[in-house]
Amino acid sequence: MDLIHIDKKISEIGSRIDFYSQITPVNRIQEEKRFFDELSRGERYDPVFTYRRTDVSRERREIELLVGSISSNDPLSRMLKKKALFLLSHMELLEADEDSLGGCAVSLFGKPDEGCLSESRGILDPPAADGSEFPEETVAPGEMAEILSVYIRERGIPWEVRLTDNIVPKLTVSGARGVIYINSRLNYTPHEVERLKVHEVLVHVYRGLNGKKQPYRIFAEGTAGYNETEEGLAVMAEKITGVLETDRRQMRLYAGRAVCAGLCLEMSFSEAFDALRADFPDGIAYRLVERAKRGMKHTRKKGCLTKGFHYISGYRKMREYVSSGRSPAVLFAGKISIDDSVAVEELLRKKQLRYPDCPPELWPGGLCEKRMPDGP
To answer: What is the pTM of this model?
Structure first.
């Protein structure tokens, strides 16, 4: 089986699973209301989430057969095999019972180590004194959608911006579909709008846009474990462009996601919420825990979707990557992981992949100042 066919098959199976839709609670609005109603009465409540799940047994069999047909003789074959196994791990998480979901999530995404947690706690210490780090969110979702639509149109990026009520985060980016999804239930702060132009467009969209230009779909949809690099690269871009100086709350939120992942592995929803209230307003503490506990039905149980720690851990790894003299520019060739960078550099030199276009704000004189070996 040729690599183009294998790549296409992995993409088709992945699109049928639609993992994040299956772990988004369909009753989250009602459960949030009940949580805060109970809180106002001094009672503790752990949400009980429901989901629209589909049977993935057919997809599991297909991917298992596909894994057996992929050799490991060259860099691209190895990347495709890792991606197929990564997709299989997603299906195992969807099929897991509640008691094993946390373990499946750790196997798939990892968990925060002590270095990540220590840095995160340092960001949160001292606690906010006057709440100024969390200003009022006054920009409505429709307004945010229009701002981003104009921003990408001015750059000649042929993507769409869509409002949706089927995501838990504020925004998500689909490199495969060429769409920025905006949560229709949540507002934004004015400084957050400017920061998200960097985070979502200059990193997530550009990586997806470059990935779309490659001959293999895996580069638009993401290699195995690409998310940690994706978020770490975005945080580094935010640091370099200065948007974290104005959106001062954001590093606290990134730290909160890492700390929350550690808490939720050992605590119920309400216990983790109580632990976060010292550092965050109640509404944001709830969002942090909801984001971590999605995928679970009975959130009174330990365990969570751990990937929220990737912002801090990915940023730590990006600092090491840059300090070693490596070029971040190669990471814009698509939605790839740092672990894939050496293989991607080889494929670029062999002209099996296209050299990426980096955002002008990041190259030259910024994140992508150091160019790739033999690059343009």
So the answer is: 0.92
